[in-house]
Amino acid sequence: MMESDTYKTLAAPSEETLLKERKSKFYGYAFPIKDVKEVKPIIEELRKLHHTANHVCYAWQLGPSGEQYRANDDGEPNNSAGMPIYGQIQAFEVTNVLVAVARIFGGTKLGVGGLISAYRTAAQMALEASNIVEKTLKQGYRLSFDYSEMDKVMRTIKQHQLEITSQKMEMDCVLDISVRKKDAQVTEDVFSAMYPVKIKKLDI
Predict the structure, then answer these.
(1) Which of 10, 35, 60, 163 has a CA positioned 20 to 30 A from the CA of residue 94?
(2) Domain final position from 134, 158, 186
Protein backbone atom coordinates (compact mmCIF):
# COMPACT_ATOMS: atom_id res chain seq x y z
CA MET A 1 0.00 0.00 0.00
CA MET A 2 2.67 2.51 1.02
CA GLU A 3 6.40 2.52 1.50
CA SER A 4 6.60 5.68 3.62
CA ASP A 5 6.61 5.93 7.40
CA THR A 6 3.18 7.59 7.54
CA TYR A 7 -0.28 6.07 7.33
CA LYS A 8 -3.86 7.32 7.39
CA THR A 9 -6.40 6.29 9.98
CA LEU A 10 -9.48 7.70 11.74
CA ALA A 11 -9.26 10.21 14.58
CA ALA A 12 -12.53 8.93 16.08
CA PRO A 13 -15.55 6.78 15.18
CA SER A 14 -17.66 8.25 12.37
CA GLU A 15 -21.18 9.51 12.74
CA GLU A 16 -23.90 7.04 11.73
CA THR A 17 -24.77 7.35 8.03
CA LEU A 18 -27.90 6.04 6.34
CA LEU A 19 -28.42 4.89 2.76
CA LYS A 20 -31.93 3.96 1.62
CA GLU A 21 -32.11 1.63 -1.34
CA ARG A 22 -35.49 0.24 -2.46
CA LYS A 23 -36.90 0.27 1.09
CA SER A 24 -33.81 -1.44 2.54
CA LYS A 25 -31.86 0.69 5.01
CA PHE A 26 -28.07 0.51 5.19
CA TYR A 27 -26.56 2.07 8.32
CA GLY A 28 -22.84 2.75 7.92
CA TYR A 29 -20.15 3.12 10.59
CA ALA A 30 -16.37 3.50 10.64
CA PHE A 31 -14.22 2.94 13.74
CA PRO A 32 -10.49 3.34 14.45
CA ILE A 33 -9.10 0.06 15.86
CA LYS A 34 -5.66 -1.07 17.03
CA ASP A 35 -6.30 -4.79 17.48
CA VAL A 36 -8.41 -7.60 15.97
CA LYS A 37 -9.89 -8.19 19.44
CA GLU A 38 -11.79 -4.89 19.17
CA VAL A 39 -13.82 -6.05 16.15
CA LYS A 40 -16.18 -8.57 17.78
CA PRO A 41 -17.41 -6.32 20.65
CA ILE A 42 -18.10 -3.44 18.21
CA ILE A 43 -20.08 -5.71 15.86
CA GLU A 44 -22.02 -7.14 18.82
CA GLU A 45 -22.89 -3.57 19.93
CA LEU A 46 -24.16 -2.78 16.41
CA ARG A 47 -26.30 -5.93 16.42
CA LYS A 48 -27.87 -4.75 19.69
CA LEU A 49 -28.35 -1.26 18.33
CA HIS A 50 -30.03 -2.59 15.17
CA HIS A 51 -31.72 -5.69 16.55
CA THR A 52 -34.01 -5.83 13.49
CA ALA A 53 -31.03 -5.83 11.09
CA ASN A 54 -30.84 -8.94 8.91
CA HIS A 55 -27.12 -8.51 8.32
CA VAL A 56 -24.24 -6.60 9.89
CA CYS A 57 -21.49 -6.86 7.28
CA TYR A 58 -18.04 -5.46 7.77
CA ALA A 59 -14.40 -5.29 6.78
CA TRP A 60 -11.31 -4.28 8.71
CA GLN A 61 -7.68 -3.59 8.01
CA LEU A 62 -4.74 -3.39 10.40
CA GLY A 63 -1.06 -2.50 10.10
CA PRO A 64 0.67 0.49 8.50
CA SER A 65 0.71 -1.25 5.13
CA GLY A 66 -2.60 -3.05 5.61
CA GLU A 67 -0.86 -6.34 6.41
CA GLN A 68 -3.94 -7.81 8.08
CA TYR A 69 -7.48 -7.55 6.76
CA ARG A 70 -10.75 -9.43 6.69
CA ALA A 71 -14.13 -9.03 4.97
CA ASN A 72 -17.33 -10.59 6.31
CA ASP A 73 -20.60 -10.97 4.34
CA ASP A 74 -22.64 -12.05 7.39
CA GLY A 75 -25.00 -14.22 5.35
CA GLU A 76 -25.28 -11.99 2.28
CA PRO A 77 -24.32 -13.64 -1.06
CA ASN A 78 -20.58 -14.35 -1.31
CA ASN A 79 -18.45 -11.21 -1.81
CA SER A 80 -21.51 -8.95 -2.18
CA ALA A 81 -20.96 -7.04 1.09
CA GLY A 82 -17.64 -7.51 2.91
CA MET A 83 -15.43 -7.08 -0.17
CA PRO A 84 -17.18 -3.90 -1.45
CA ILE A 85 -16.74 -2.46 2.08
CA TYR A 86 -13.07 -3.51 2.08
CA GLY A 87 -12.68 -1.92 -1.36
CA GLN A 88 -13.65 1.44 0.16
CA ILE A 89 -11.09 1.04 2.98
CA GLN A 90 -8.51 0.62 0.21
CA ALA A 91 -9.92 3.50 -1.86
CA PHE A 92 -9.62 5.88 1.11
CA GLU A 93 -6.14 4.43 1.89
CA VAL A 94 -6.92 4.11 5.59
CA THR A 95 -5.75 1.41 7.98
CA ASN A 96 -6.31 0.41 11.62
CA VAL A 97 -9.97 0.75 10.75
CA LEU A 98 -13.23 -1.21 10.92
CA VAL A 99 -16.12 -0.31 8.62
CA ALA A 100 -19.49 -1.93 9.29
CA VAL A 101 -22.85 -1.71 7.55
CA ALA A 102 -26.09 -2.89 9.19
CA ARG A 103 -28.85 -3.72 6.69
CA ILE A 104 -32.52 -3.70 7.53
CA PHE A 105 -34.34 -5.50 4.72
CA GLY A 106 -37.24 -3.57 3.21
CA GLY A 107 -38.98 -6.39 1.37
CA THR A 108 -37.49 -5.88 -2.10
CA LYS A 109 -34.52 -8.00 -3.16
CA LEU A 110 -31.68 -5.97 -4.62
CA GLY A 111 -29.82 -8.75 -6.43
CA VAL A 112 -26.06 -9.24 -6.09
CA GLY A 113 -25.21 -6.18 -8.21
CA GLY A 114 -27.57 -4.01 -6.17
CA LEU A 115 -26.09 -5.30 -2.91
CA ILE A 116 -22.51 -4.65 -4.03
CA SER A 117 -23.42 -1.10 -5.01
CA ALA A 118 -25.37 -0.43 -1.77
CA TYR A 119 -22.70 -1.80 0.59
CA ARG A 120 -19.96 0.03 -1.33
CA THR A 121 -21.88 3.34 -1.14
CA ALA A 122 -22.77 2.86 2.55
CA ALA A 123 -19.09 2.21 3.38
CA GLN A 124 -18.05 5.24 1.32
CA MET A 125 -20.56 7.45 3.18
CA ALA A 126 -19.26 6.23 6.57
CA LEU A 127 -15.65 6.99 5.59
CA GLU A 128 -16.63 10.38 4.15
CA ALA A 129 -18.26 11.17 7.52
CA SER A 130 -15.00 10.29 9.33
CA ASN A 131 -12.14 12.52 10.38
CA ILE A 132 -9.15 10.96 8.58
CA VAL A 133 -5.75 11.82 10.04
CA GLU A 134 -2.17 11.03 9.04
CA LYS A 135 0.02 9.35 11.62
CA THR A 136 3.76 8.76 11.61
CA LEU A 137 5.35 5.42 12.41
CA LYS A 138 7.75 5.72 15.30
CA GLN A 139 10.62 3.65 16.67
CA GLY A 140 11.50 3.86 20.35
CA TYR A 141 14.96 3.59 21.91
CA ARG A 142 16.28 3.55 25.46
CA LEU A 143 19.53 5.39 26.09
CA SER A 144 21.55 4.60 29.24
CA PHE A 145 24.56 6.73 30.16
CA ASP A 146 26.50 8.42 32.97
CA TYR A 147 25.88 12.01 33.98
CA SER A 148 29.18 12.95 32.40
CA GLU A 149 27.68 12.14 28.96
CA MET A 150 24.52 14.20 29.56
CA ASP A 151 25.54 17.29 27.58
CA LYS A 152 26.65 15.28 24.58
CA VAL A 153 23.46 13.17 24.58
CA MET A 154 21.12 16.15 24.99
CA ARG A 155 22.93 18.07 22.26
CA THR A 156 22.51 15.14 19.87
CA ILE A 157 18.82 14.78 20.76
CA LYS A 158 18.26 18.46 20.03
CA GLN A 159 20.30 18.38 16.84
CA HIS A 160 18.28 15.44 15.46
CA GLN A 161 14.98 16.80 16.84
CA LEU A 162 14.22 13.59 18.73
CA GLU A 163 11.31 13.29 21.12
CA ILE A 164 12.00 12.30 24.73
CA THR A 165 9.13 10.09 25.94
CA SER A 166 10.41 9.41 29.46
CA GLN A 167 13.46 10.06 31.60
CA LYS A 168 14.86 8.61 34.79
CA MET A 169 17.79 10.30 36.50
CA GLU A 170 19.13 8.20 39.35
CA MET A 171 22.62 6.71 39.73
CA ASP A 172 22.87 7.02 36.01
CA CYS A 173 20.57 8.45 33.32
CA VAL A 174 17.97 6.58 31.32
CA LEU A 175 16.15 8.36 28.51
CA ASP A 176 13.48 6.88 26.27
CA ILE A 177 13.30 8.57 22.89
CA SER A 178 11.01 8.22 19.91
CA VAL A 179 12.03 8.80 16.28
CA ARG A 180 10.35 8.59 12.91
CA LYS A 181 10.75 5.13 11.45
CA LYS A 182 12.67 6.46 8.44
CA ASP A 183 15.22 8.17 10.74
CA ALA A 184 15.61 5.15 13.04
CA GLN A 185 18.78 3.68 11.52
CA VAL A 186 20.62 7.02 11.50
CA THR A 187 19.68 7.61 15.15
CA GLU A 188 20.80 4.12 16.09
CA ASP A 189 24.14 4.61 14.32
CA VAL A 190 24.76 8.02 15.96
CA PHE A 191 24.22 6.74 19.50
CA SER A 192 25.92 3.38 18.90
CA ALA A 193 29.05 5.30 17.91
CA MET A 194 28.82 7.41 21.08
CA TYR A 195 30.76 5.32 23.58
CA PRO A 196 29.93 4.72 26.51
CA VAL A 197 26.25 5.51 25.81
CA LYS A 198 24.16 2.34 25.49
CA ILE A 199 21.19 2.23 23.10
CA LYS A 200 18.45 -0.37 23.08
CA LYS A 201 15.44 -0.73 20.75
CA LEU A 202 12.01 -0.49 22.34
CA ASP A 203 8.62 -1.71 21.11
CA ILE A 204 6.20 1.18 21.11
Answers:
(1) 163
(2) 134
